[in-house]
Recover the amino acids of this structure.
């Protein structure tokens, strides 16, 4: 069975019979089958190839198998988007634990970060998708459910502060534990990733995330070819298929190569701090040791890797 | 009781389905499930948390451990060292004639009390100025207008303007040095590449340092269905005047 990637292998059952099977036998099925049934887009995408159908779990793939998959995905990007892209499978490094901090005394709510995320991560253009929501908050409250994201007036307003929210890369990620097929997991550098080829789109994780940080691809992202960011990674910004979940990956295609995340570089105010928690001389360590940082919804025990602080 | 959806490490996963693809597994579970063979479905189609890391991947951090790591530089955006003023006159070749600050100020008597643009009636009219209650000469060196004032004498080149700011804004300068004020681009890992940093005066006009009000870009469409003014709100931030 180690050659399961063989192109000639046909799926165990035909696509058309899947839903009927579900209806008939739902009660005896496991969690994954229920999840699949509840997934909003349960039709097989016509473009789903046999190879993808039979692809093994990310962590079971050999290097050769991954190389084949990357080539296939690059070809798909060429066919569907007309874009020459390079997709890398970049592993986490030892001795690196990523964390992020955001200075709420500095952020002015301009949403440049959300925009940079949109472009960097090849988000669907028509829905203006982004992994970052910037909330306008009343001074004195940090209840993110009370923030508004659709403000449209000059910023910063005097009685307000601004709080960008994205994936908090929790050390106890509720989104990971609810995934019925282990299509999402936490990597050893702290980043929570999704294998888009494994995700069945049930959206349990979206519901489980207390930070509303996960997004669903209701349709295949539309991006003009000249706007496609060609520097991609398998677990991050490659163009997602329809019907799968996606989330912030701290731009792992950049950060695992030593670079800063796109949202940090785009911030015109310098409110964002990123780095390696294990490096005692890092900027992120300095912030944790010298500022009074807090995390969102600490009471939930999710243990975010994303910290917020105010200057005294 | 162990959660069936999360097999304990080492729990064996039947090879026949474990090496199938994700979508194949879901389908396989329908088939098996419909035959009533599966009581704990999770154990069959979940790969288990004990799956080892991928083989053959060379960790860059380990690979470079033996060689001494080159540390790249942090560049702070430069400012000009010498300031001059356009006289409005032109050289024969059409280039504007510019003169040094000291051309005039070497002969004028410094007015130590000037602390506002409104007080300037002979020259430098139109200067926007709102910086605490500072006099001009708390920053400009009264003994040499071609440089800035160092609190203990000696002067600071215009190129080193950040030292000037640091004399009065200790906390922000400390935060800046530690990366939590002023932003950066490039690499968090200086063994992999350099980093660029803004100068204080890239963000704060020394004469009116308050960060400008701006119009936000990129209104979200998925939140509350509000449509942004345009689909490509990607231009630079549009400053709006305060008040």
């Amino acid at each position: 069975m180690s050659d399961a990637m063989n192109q000639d292998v046909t799926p165990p059952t035909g696509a058309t019979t899947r839903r009927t099977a579900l209806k008939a036998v739902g009660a005896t099925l496991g969690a994954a089958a229920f999840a699949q049934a509840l997934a909003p887009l349960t039709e097989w995408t016509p473009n789903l190839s046999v190879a993808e159908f039979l692809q093994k779990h990310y962590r079971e793939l050999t290097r050769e198998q991954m190389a084949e998959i990357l080539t296939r995905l690059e070809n798909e990007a060429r066919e569907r988007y007309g874009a020459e892209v390079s997709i890398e499978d970049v592993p986490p490094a030892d001795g690196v634990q990523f964390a992020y901090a955001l200075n709420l005394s500095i952020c002015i709510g301009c949403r440049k970060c959300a925009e940079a995320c949109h472009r960097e991560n090849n988000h669907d253009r028509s829905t203006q998708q982004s992994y970052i929501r910037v909330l306008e908050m009343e001074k004195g409250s940090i209840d993110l459910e009370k923030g508004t994201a659709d403000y449209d007036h000059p910023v910063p307003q005097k009685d307000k502060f601004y709080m960008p929210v994205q994936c908090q890369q929790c050390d106890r990620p509720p989104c990971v534990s609810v995934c019925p097929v282990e299509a999402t997991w936490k990597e050893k550098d702290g980043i929570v990733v999704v294998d888009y080829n494994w995700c069945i789109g049930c959206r349990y994780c979206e519901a489980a995330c207390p930070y509303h940080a996960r997004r669903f691809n209701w349709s295949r992202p539309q991006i003009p070819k000249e706007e496609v960011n060609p520097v991609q990674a398998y677990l991050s910004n490659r163009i997602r298929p329809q019907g799968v979940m996606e989330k912030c990956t701290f731009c792992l295609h950049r950060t695992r190569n030593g670079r800063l995340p796109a949202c940090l570089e785009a911030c015109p105010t310098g409110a964002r701090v990123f780095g390696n928690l294990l490096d005692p001389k890092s900027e992120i360590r300095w912030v944790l040791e010298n500022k009074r940082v807090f995390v969102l919804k600490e009471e939930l025990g999710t243990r975010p890797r994303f910290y917020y602080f105010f200057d005294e | 009781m162990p959660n069936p959806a999360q097999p304990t490490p080492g729990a064996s996963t039947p090879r026949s389905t474990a090496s199938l693809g994700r979508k194949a597994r879901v389908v396989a579970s329908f088939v098996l499930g419909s035959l009533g063979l599966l009581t704990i479905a999770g154990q069959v189609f979940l790969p288990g948390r004990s799956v080892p890391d991928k083989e053959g991947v060379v960790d860059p951090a380990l690979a470079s451990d033996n060689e001494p790591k080159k540390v790249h530089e942090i560049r702070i955006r430069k400012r000009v060292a010498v300031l001059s003023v356009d006289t409005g006159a032109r050289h024969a070749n059409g280039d504007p004639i510019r003169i040094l600050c000291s051309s005039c100020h070497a002969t004028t008597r410094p007015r130590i009390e000037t602390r506002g643009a409104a007080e300037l009636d002979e020259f430098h009219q139109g200067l926007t100025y709102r910086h605490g209650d500072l006099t001009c000469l708390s920053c400009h060196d009264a003994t040499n207008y071609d440089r800035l004032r160092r609190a203990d004498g000696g002067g600071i080149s215009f190129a080193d303007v950040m030292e000037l700011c640091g004399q009065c804004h200790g906390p922000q300068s400390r935060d800046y040095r530690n990366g939590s004020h002023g932003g950066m681009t490039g690499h968090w890992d200086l063994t992999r590449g350099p980093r660029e940093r803004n100068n204080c005066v890239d963000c704060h006009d020394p004469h009116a340092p308050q960060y400008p009000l701006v119009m936000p870009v990129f209104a979200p469409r998925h939140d509350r269905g509000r449509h942004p003014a345009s689909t490509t709100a990607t231009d630079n931030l549009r400053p709006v005047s305060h008040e």
About this structure: The two ends of chain A are 61 Å apart (CA to CA). Chain A touches chain B through 101 residues (CB under 8 Å). Residues 63-81 of chain A form the longest helix (19 residues).
